[in-house]
């Protein structure tokens, strides 16, 4: 069940990225049929993870209205657990995130469907589908509820390993919901403040060690939670930059600090090379890649350093080969081919790179 939950959305996403419409249609039918068959089983009818998967598939396939109906149905049948239910928080967070991606501006977002979802989550009552408006008094109550709930989670101590796993997921979902709620109702600075406070608390918790046993005395599995919170933080900054005028430096600083701590996180690396494409100077990024590859055995920094240089090379060649008369290249060729080959050579000589088929295939493909 867990394998299917990951595999089929991934297949749909790959079809979307490759723009293979026919394959997407076939894969979409297969995925939806599988999800429906799972939900028909008596033991799975109240499984919020499956409902979440089904709704997400509908959204990926472009069936927004159908996806909303599935989300609403799942929330209506989920009970009244509110912020204390990890699955309910996770479902509401995904629903709200997808709705936020449809916004063209943050102005007027306080009356959006996303705010309605995040507000209803705090009321511990039956879910009511969005009717087009959100009461201001409910927004104020929700903000207080989120604030108290986050304080409670940040101050608690786990009692078991299983409790740590559950509490980690719950804390991440709670921080995500609260920060997104603040973003929509107050602004980006208020959302960043939530992420900053949560990260500081998690870091402080991770540093609290028992001298005799070496066990954590603070909250839950703090490295996992801190990494997930960091990813939510950077994703929100990227989205805000897409719909608003906002400086690049906060996002760049957040990504560089996060990647020093989590050099294997592929999502963070994708975000980093995406923002570096907007910069005309490659020297800072190259120095950063060099420092990370020297300090970790992870292969991801090498792979993304190579990808960044290949993207830069492709852009340079596109400018130089443009068939529109005389072109004066504004991005000078500085031996990108030799630089990429050197990166490949260093990467394949590393302990992990020597045994990585992907890296060798990339190297052979580039040489061809």
Automatic annotation (TrEMBL):
Q: Does the keyword Nucleus apply?
A: yes
UniProt main location, coarse: nucleus
Q: Give the record's keywords alphabetically.
A: Nucleus
Q: Does the keyword Nucleotide-binding apply?
A: no
Sections of the chain in a coiled coil:
none
Q: Tell me which domain of life the UniProt entry assigns to the organism this sequence originates from.
A: Eukaryota
- Protein location: Nucleus
Q: Quote the cellular component terms of the Gene Ontology held in the record.
A: catalytic step 2 spliceosome
Gene Ontology BP, a term: negative regulation of RNA catabolic process
Q: Record's InterPro entries?
A: NRDE-2 (IPR013633), TPR-like_helical_dom_sf (IPR011990)
| Family affiliation | Belongs to the NRDE2 family.
Protein name listed in UniProt: NRDE2 protein
Q: Which organism is it from?
A: Dryoscopus gambensis
What gene is this protein a product of? Nrde2
């Amino acid at each position: 069940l867990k394998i299917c939950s990951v595999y089929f959305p991934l297949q749909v996403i790959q079809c979307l990225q490759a723009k293979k419409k026919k394959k997407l249609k076939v894969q979409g039918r297969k995925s939806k049929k599988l999800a429906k068959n799972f939900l028909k089983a008596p033991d799975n009818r109240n499984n919020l993870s499956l409902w979440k998967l089904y709704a997400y598939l509908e959204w990926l396939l472009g069936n927004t209205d159908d996806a909303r109906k599935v989300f609403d149905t799942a929330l209506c049948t989920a009970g009244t657990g509110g912020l204390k239910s990890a699955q309910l928080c996770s479902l509401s967070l995904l629903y709200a995130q997808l709705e936020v991606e449809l916004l063209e501006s943050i102005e007027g977002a306080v009356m959006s469907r996303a705010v309605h979802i995040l507000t209803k989550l705090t009321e511990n009552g039956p879910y009511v589908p969005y009717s087009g408006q959100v009461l201001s008094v409910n927004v104020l109550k929700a903000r207080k509820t989120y604030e108290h709930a986050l304080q409670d989670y940040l101050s608690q101590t786990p009692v078991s390993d299983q409790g740590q796993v559950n509490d980690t997921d719950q804390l991440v979902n709670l921080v995500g919901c609260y920060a997104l709620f603040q973003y929509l109702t107050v602004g980006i600075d208020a959302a960043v403040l939530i992420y900053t406070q949560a990260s500081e608390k998690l870091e402080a918790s991770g540093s609290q060690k028992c001298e005799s046993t070496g066990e954590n005395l603070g909250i839950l599995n703090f490295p996992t939670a801190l990494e997930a919170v960091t990813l939510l933080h950077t994703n929100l900054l990227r989205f805000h930059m897409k719909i608003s005028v906002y400086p690049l430096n906060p996002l760049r600083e957040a990504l560089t600090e996060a990647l020093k701590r989590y050099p294997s996180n592929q999502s963070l690396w994708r975000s980093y090379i995406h923002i570096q494409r907007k910069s005309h100077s490659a020297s800072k990024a190259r120095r950063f890649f060099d420092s990370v590859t020297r300090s970790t055995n992870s292969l991801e920094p090498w792979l993304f350093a190579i990808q960044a240089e290949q993207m830069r090379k492709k852009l340079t060649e596109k400018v130089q080969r443009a068939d529109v008369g005389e072109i004066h290249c504004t991005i000078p060729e500085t031996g990108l081919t030799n630089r990429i080959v050197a990166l490949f050579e260093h990467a394949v000589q590393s302990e992990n790179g020597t045994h990585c088929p992907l890296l060798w295939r990339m190297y052979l493909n580039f040489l061809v």
